[in-house]
Amino acid sequence: MSNEIDQQQLYSGPDGNSPFRGLGGLLRQNIKNLTPYSSARDEFQGEASVFLDANENAYGSPLVQAYNRYPDPMQYQVKMRLSQIKGVPARNIFLGNGSDEAIDILFRSFCNPGVDNVIIVPPTYGMYEVSANINDVKLKRVLLTEEYQLNLEGIAEAIDANTKLIFICSPNNPTGNSINRDDIETLLANFNGIVVVDEAYINYSRQKTFIQELTEYANLVVLQTLSKAWGLAGLRMGMAFASEEIIEVMNKVKPPYNINEASQTLALQALANIEQVNTWIKETLQQRDNLVLTLKDMAFVLDIYPSDANFILVKTTDANSIYNFLVERGIIVRNRSKVELCEGCLRITIGTPQENDKLIETLQQYNA
Predict the structure, then answer these.
(1) Cα–Cα distance for residue pair 155/6, rounded to 1 Å
(2) Fewer CB within 10 Å, N or C, the chain?
């Protein structure tokens, strides 16, 4: 199917002649009227030595590191370090308890329950659907093409006056491929709503990040995370990059202390070790190439899809049988065989050389 579409097909506004015009018509009325919680730390400027404002335990914590004080509600130091790394002003950065919090806040800010809808493009990350269901927001599914790319014509047909968000995961989970950049820009330029580009795996990709396009598209939200390449999944810190106006809305809706002090402190330490992370990325990509070459020779492997992530999607003759065979031997992969367009597929994360060797040895036993 051709991706050549009329620009007007994507536009959901009232007059049919201009794209995104700002958040005025997108925000829920109750969010427009919301007065955010004002924490004790929000109510003064400058430095202080005595804090008697937040009903904290002044004596400390029963730990080596003291955690008796509430953390910075806006995570200033972490955002400043991310600003240096990402090349984007701190005011354009939101930090959440994982990217999942950012996803949920977008639903709560822009989607009226029982009225509005969002579009996802399966197969894709499952939390978009979960968040939609939690927030009672209708979900419209437009399947990717057989090449795992956007069906722009199908998206255009799905958009209506109540479509607020479109979620695009690139590189995509579980398929691993990057979504065609021109297609995403077509949506950004013509959709009268917010386009969310989830870049959880961007550090492994050959494509450049969409963060560089924030000044070009006021309706763009880019999600990233410290859980993957940065190896901080246990800290739960996700990032959203967007216009200052959108970030202000997200900060207004979030809980006052959504990122704890330990996570902020450890994240700052990790962000000082870019060279280590880059080394791991290079090693992961080499291991991915090695694993693909080895798996291609196994009789049960029908296809291995191109990947820009730290995992591969492998089409097999019997995904359930292989999955159970591996589980019985203490190796866990992800069975995606029941996901649309992923029939017969296993998603395999790239491990250490030792873990990958064990996987290969075990699969060779199955192959035999």
Answers:
(1) 12
(2) C
Domain 7-270: which CATH class? alpha beta
DSSP for 88-109 reads: S-GGGEEEESSHHHHHHHHHHH
- What is the structure's pLDDT at 199? 98
Contact 316, 344 (CB under 8 A): yes
Position 41 confidence tier, pLDDT thresholds 50, 70, 90: confident
| Average pLDDT of the residues of the chain | 94
- Quickly tell me which residue has 């959440």 as its tokens: 96
Decide: 69 and 79 in contact? Cβ < 8 Å. Answer: no
pLDDT bin (cut points 50, 70, 90) of residue 105 is: very high
Give the per-residue pLDDT at 1.
Answer: 37
Q: Please write the tens of the pLDDT for every residue from 142-192.
A: 999 999 999 999 999 999 999 999 999 999 999 999 999 999 999 999 999
Share of the chain above pLDDT 70, in %: 95
| Cα 210 to Cα 241: distance, rounded to the nearest angstrom | 9
Q: What is the reported pLDDT for 17? A: 46
Q: Residue 176: which residues within 8 A CB-CB, separation 6 or more?
A: 201, 305, 306, 307, 308, 309, 311, 312, 313
Pairing of strands 93-96, 311-316: unpaired
Tell me, letter by letter, the H, E, C secondary structure of 238-249.
EEEEECHHHHHH
Strands 194-198, 163-169: pairing kind:
parallel
Task: Say yes or no: domain 275-367 is CATH 3.90.1150.10.
Answer: yes
Residue-range domain boundaries for the chain:
7-270, 275-367
CB 239 within 8 A of CB 263: no
Instruction: Determine the Cα–Cα distance for residues 145 and 95; give it in Å rounded to an integer.
Output: 33
Angle in degrees, CA 235, 288, 322, rounded to 5: 90
Ranges of H-type helices in 11-151: 29-32, 76-86, 99-110, 127-134
